[in-house]
Amino acid sequence: MIHEVDEGLRRLLAESGLETSGVEVVFDAPTSDWAARRSAPTVCVFLYDIREDHTRRGSGGGEVYDADGFVVARRTPPRWFELTYLVTAWAGRPQDEHRLLSQVLSCLVNTDALPPHMLTGTLAELGLLVDVDAGGTGTDAPAASDVWSALGGDLKPSLGLRVKAPLAGVSRVTAPPVTEGLAVNSVPRTAPDGTGGTRRLRYTGLGEPGPEGFGGSRERPGVPARRRRGERQP
Q1: How far is it, in rounded angstroms, from Cα 209 to Cα 184?
Q2: Segment Disordered: which positions (predicted)?
Q3: Which one of 19, 75, 103, 139 has the largest count of C-beta atoms within 10 Å of its C-beta?
């Protein structure tokens, strides 16, 4: 799921005009060594915190159907996680970085959720919203200054980006659907036609007669039907 969120953010930023202007979108850790190797304008979307949103944990499950409409698996409900990113812009001059960061901010604050056509893999299969919240971080997430200290780099203007995405539940394959009747092995004997004593019960609709089906008549041969109240016996 994490790499699918990364791909959705990459597509979102690319369609905002960064791709046509030659700006690269990466997900590397912006360490001092990494920054020294950068030569082209770059937007870095660094994931540094992952936490489950326990308030959205559900119960029950869903069913997975095949092309014929049969249930082939049962899936536990998805669990939601909050992914926190540190978004920075890298260019030759601070003015260019600020202009680039402003373009990214304008794109993110106008996006409440990743568009469906930008979702891939399990995110596309689930069909659930992937929320995007720019300009802040979670209450439990580390502060930006702590992140820069851990990276060993100098403090730099950055955007806090939170994405809430579902992690698909576990699927358990179900037994295949019943397509044949129940085979009953009776006492071995030879029928008049020379066949054995195995017979197969056929499933028919309720009320429809069947030679040996559950939907066939339950009256025993040779026994008259029970009279209904009020009827006279001939």
Answers
A1: 19
A2: 184-234
A3: 103
Q: Do 166 and 186 reside in the same domain of the chain?
A: no
Indicate if 190 and 75 belong to the same structural domain: no
Residue 69: predicted pLDDT:
74
User: Mean pLDDT lowest for which of 18-22, 49-53, 102-106, 158-162?
Assistant: 18-22
Domain that holds residue 187: 178-218
- Give bridge partners of residue 89 from the DSSP assignment: 43
Phi then psi for residue 200, to 5 deg, are: -120, 125
Label residue 75 exposed, middle or buried (CB < 10 Å: 0-12, 13-18, 19+). middle
Q: Give the DSSP per-residue string, 143-156.
A: PHHHHHHHHT----
DSSP 85-102: EEEEEE-SSHHHHHHHHH
Q: What is the pTM of this model?
A: 0.68
